[in-house]
Amino acid sequence: MSKLSYERPFIQKLNTGSMNKFGTKTEFAPVTHLDGVAVSRLIEQYGSPCFVISERQIRKNAQNAIRAFKTRYPKIQFAWSYKTNYLSAVCNIFHQEGSLAEVVSIFEYKKALQNGVEGSKIIFNGPDKSEADLTLAIDNNSLIHIDHFDELYSLVGIMEGSSKKARVAIRVNMDTGIYPMWDRFGFNYENGQAWNAIIKILAHKELELVGLHCHIGTFMLSTSAYATAAYKLCDLAANIKVKYGHAIQYLDLGGGFASTNTLKGSYLQGADVVPSIDDYAEAITSTILNANFHQDELPTIILESGRSLIDDAAWLIGSVVATKRLSDGRRATIMDFGVNILFNAFWYDYKISPAQEFTHHTEDMVIYGPLCMNIDCIRENINLPLLNKGDQVVVHKVGAYNMTQWMQFIQMRPKIVLIDMEGKTHILRENESLETMMELERMPEHLKSVK
Amino acid sequence: MQINKNIAISDSGFIFNPSSGDSFSTNNVGLEIIRLLKENKSKDEIITEIVTKFSTDASTLDKDLGDFFLMLRSYQLLSDND
After folding, report:
1. Is ipTM strictly over 0.90?
2. Is there a contact between A150 and A130 (Cβ–Cβ < 8 Å)?
3. pLDDT tens digits, residue range A103-123?
4. Which of A25, A115, A237, A242 is surrounded by the most beta carbons within 10 Å?
């Protein structure tokens, strides 16, 4: 006689009260395949945990964003935000879809060059550019977005007596009605600092002011803030045209579009509150089209979207290490991935799905990572089936920042795998090993022995 | 170890404790364990019966039973009779 299938014994007190007005949760619907590839196969082949990226979803997101803007405005250019995810393969998918490279350090700048991006197609942002960095960017005819007066004067010094021209823009910070206001980067619009910077640039013939840039925040839930930002950039561009007869070639609205992840503390799910890419496009393009640009001098709109284009194109798959009962009776589930590789768990309530079928019984639990650190908590409260040691799970929408902000702390960082358009898998980054870590360490001779 | 004898158990895993008015839900394995407890079976006897009937091993069940008994005690469905 075959035995009945076993499920950990479970008992739950039934509480009366008002139902959740959104109905019962469905987070525990199993996700057994990613882009047609079985999660169990991925873990067997590449280990657990493992990041999995979908080429199909990246291309879909990139094309959808271009469609949203190009159907509203004739001159659109996206620039891939390297810091969001600078895996070379990911960058090159965006470059193949027509994106420039938007970098914020010389490391990212050189990575873009190594990826095969022409220097003239690199936007160099960020507050830390050395004179050597600036010289390299000038030689490559890159777009240099000046962050502060020290950088501006460095550029003037470098360009003195040069026959070349540096293509520059300034980063403008401004009040767009959102809090907190991002004013640490660039020059302020309201107090006239931005205008002063513009005057100084225009006074130096070796600097060519080609654009105006802003980056008003991150995970922006308000499209009107972009309309305000676009209006203020248009105002600066119009004043430059009127007073100096100089036409600005592009307005760079930066990034900050939200993904559909759910922020911690949010009452509603991310998908219900986040504006669509079309909403952002409408706010920005309608403002610029309504500004008084001559038809022949419409500036190109550059967008440096990162998060909204990559977050939902990657998953983290992992396994249950153990389950235990906390002192207050709550279930705790320990996973083999933690905040070390899922840094954005500090801000998001990540959706987590089991990767195998379960019964209808579910329980509330805390999800912890494998670190011996109290901060290592992935979800403070989530309702999932009765997970057991070895069960596999899928964490959704992890593509932005986790693979750049992750840290080698206590555990080694895992493999990153791409599922291509044909459903084939490729390793994009190997997992770390002891050898990887020791490669950079040096041992003084007198410390080589522990005796 | 003594299960509260006057609790009502349905075949679908619904449990009602008339002395407190509390109701609970349990799964198949939990239901089977509570039935065995009502028959005054010891922990070892429960393990033997469950391992015979369900596809699990004694060590897994021993670990899970510890947690299950903890929850039964916290819900005042199980008491120590010694």
Report:
1. yes
2. no
3. 999 999 999 999 999 999 999
4. A237
pLDDT at res. A27:
62
Residues A285 and A142 in one domain: yes
Is the pLDDT confidence value at B19 over 80? Answer: yes
Which residues of chain B does A5 touch, with a Cβ-Cβ cutoff of 8 Å? 54-55
Domain limits, chain B: 2-79
User: A79-103 pLDDT, tens per residue?
Assistant: 999 999 999 999 999 999 999 999 9
Neighbour count for residue A60 (Cβ, 10 Å): 14
Confidence of residue A211 (pLDDT cuts 50, 70, 90): very high
Same domain, A193 and A238: yes
Expressed as residue numbers, the domain containing A342 is 33-52+312-432
For an interface test with A, which of B10, B67, B69, B73 has the most A Cβ atoms less than 10 Å from its Cβ? B67
**pLDDT for residue A262:** 93
**Is the CB of B74 less than 8 angstroms away from the CB of A359?**
no
Worst-scoring range by mean pLDDT, A105-119, A245-259, A356-370? A356-370
Residue A178 and residue A318 share a domain = no
Instruction: Check CB contact under 8 Å for A11 and B22.
Output: no
C-alpha span between B79 and B75 (Å, rounded): 10
Does A4 sit within 8 Å of B30, measured CB to CB? no
Q: Does A361 reside within a domain?
A: yes
Question: Which residues on chain B are in Cβ contact (under 8 Å) with A390?
Answer: none
Residues of B in contact with A6 (CB under 8 A): 29, 54-56, 60
pTM over 0.90: yes
* Residue A247, number of CB atoms within 10 A of its CB: 16
pLDDT of residue A171: 97
B57 → chain A, closest CA residue = A6
A321 pLDDT above the threshold of 80: yes
In the block, tokens 């060590």 appear at B59
Q: How far apart are CA A137 and CA A167, in angstroms?
A: 9
Cβ within 8 Å, pair A9-B64: yes
- In this structure, which topology does domain B2-79 adopt according to CATH? Arc Repressor Mutant, subunit A (1.10.10)
Question: So what's the pLDDT on residue A229?
Answer: 97
B-chain CB neighbours of A8 within 8 Å are 29, 64, 67
Assess whether pLDDT exceeds 60 at residue A77.
Answer: yes
What is the C-alpha to C-alpha distance for residues A87 and A435, in angstroms, rounded to an integer? 21
Other CB atoms within a 10 A radius of the CB of residue A260 amount to: 17
Name the interface residues of A facing B (CB cutoff 8 Å): 3-14, 325, 329, 359, 361, 386
- For residue A360, what is the nearest residue in chain B, using CA coordinates? B27
Residue B36: list chain A partners with CB under 8 A. none
Residues A336 and A238 in one domain: no
Chain-chain contact of B24 with A12 (C-beta, under 8 angstroms) = yes
Residue A38 clears pLDDT 90, i.e. is over it: yes
CA angle at residue B27 from A322 to A24, to 5 degrees?
85
d(CA B4, CA A151): 77
- Range A69-86 average pLDDT: 98
Tally of structural domains, chain A: 2
The verdict on a CB contact (< 8 Å) between B29 and A7 is yes
Q: Which 3 state secondary structure label does DSSP give A438? A: helix
